[in-house]
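Work Package 3 (structural annotation) set out to generate three-dimensional models for the target panel prioritized at the project kickoff. During this period the team completed the workflow that converts sequence records into discrete structure tokens, so that structures can be stored uniformly alongside our sequence database. As a representative example, we reproduce one entry of 228 residues exactly as it appears in the project archive.
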Amino acid sequence: MAYHVLVVDDEKLIVKGIKFSLEQDGMQVTPAYDGEEALQLIKDSNFDLIVLDVMLPKMDGLQVCQQVREFSQVPIIMVTAKGEDMDKIMGLEYGADDYITKPFNILELKARIKAILRRSVKKAPAEGSKNILKARELELSYDSRRVFIQEKEVNLTAKEFDLLELLMENPGKVYSREKLLDTVWGYDYPGDVRTVDVHVRRLREKIEANPSEPKYIFTKWGVGYYFN
């Protein structure tokens, strides 16, 4: 089945351009032009990914993202006309999986969309392998892409799950932030290695009893991160 993408921007020409380009790749695209309309569509429909502009009428993109994260972990790419780092990081703080800054190349946006969709597809485990990863009280399910702590589900975004999955599959292996960007995000992510720091911090807040004294995800100072 075709991927279903929601594109939210109050600039109709931008929506039209993205819609045309994604439809050329066989995707189904639903447009929305303000935050309230977008939120209602997300509640009423099942989307595989959302492209969400920050500056929207009625309700801005950060508010939409924050409210969506209360009931859904659908991948979200934030679009912002602002180039300041804090705006980008704020988008991630609210639960976005990625961001792109206007003006952007449609080919770059498509590459990011495809990378996230590839990683978000539920992967069937290799024949003969187990479909569950366990580490003490932490359990990760490949089939359902769900994570549990002491049998209680923890809601992770697509990128948080991918990050945890990679680290759990390679315990003790230290990954630099650059390597994590390349492996988890799946494309050259220019400059913003802090994106990894934000995701690791959010992940720790969700799976660690005491994020400041982690027992799962450790920092190798000056190098990167590893799973214990």
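Residues 122-129 have pLDDT under 50 and may be disordered.
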